[in-house]
Amino acid sequence: MDLALVGLVFAAVMAWQTRHLPTGAPAPDFTLRTLSGGQVRLSELQGKPVVLAFWAPWCGVCKFESSTLSALRSTVGGSAHVLSVAVAYEDEEDVRRFAREHAVDYPVLLGGPELMRAYGVEQFPTTFFVSSEGHIERAAVGYTTRLGLLWRMWL
């Protein structure tokens, strides 16, 4: 009974945190520069699911989730895209430092306030699960374990 109550409270908190996020809608398209100098356009990634994690270099929870995103990327291999979008940063060097210090091995895109508004991001980290057809199926706010990311991705 206690476990069911904890699960219910957990589900209610998750629903409350994601209530304003655009789930069920087409993912807003973007073209962003990567930290390594390339460009990524979201609509060109259709055909595979996309895990899209918004974060900020000053975010303490984002530091913990960084290794989780790396683990997810190694687990799913080429069957999905795992991307992160750095937002709310002072300058690009802050993002580079974060990537170096946390051994980031997934693509880091450089976003800004417009993209945060388009996705309704107000807290970090916020992770979206985009279908292979380009629709936002689910979202999560706060730290998510590798198992939690996998579960949401393949649900």
Please provide a written account of the structure:
The structure is a single chain. With 155 residues, the protein is of the alpha/beta class. 38% of the residues lie in helices and 21% in strands. It is built from 5 helices and 7 strands. The chain has helices spanning 2-17, 60-76, 92-101, 113-119, 146-154, and strands spanning 31-33, 39-41, 50-55, 81-86, 108-110, 126-130, 136-141. The strands form 2 sheets. It has a 5-stranded mixed sheet, covered by helices on one side. A two-stranded antiparallel ribbon has the order 1-2. Helix 2 (60-76) links the parallel strand 3 (50-55) and strand 4. The radius of gyration is 15 Å and the shape is globular. The two termini are 25 Å apart.
Short recap of the structure:
The protein has 155 residues and is of the alpha/beta class. The protein has five helices and seven strands; from the N terminus they run αβββαβαβαββα. About 6% of the residues have low confidence.
Q: Structural class of the helix and strand makeup? A: alpha/beta
The first-to-last residue Cα distance is 25 Å
Rg estimate, integer Å: 15 Å
Sum up the overall morphology in one term: globular
Residues in helix, %: 25-40%
Largest sheet: 5 strands, mixed
What percentage of the residues does DSSP assign to strands (E)? 15-25%
Mean pLDDT: 88
Secondary-structure element sequence? HEEEHEHEHEEH
E-strand count:
7
- Helix count equals 5
Point out poorly predicted stretches: 5-13
- Tell me the strand order in the biggest sheet: 5-4-3-6-7
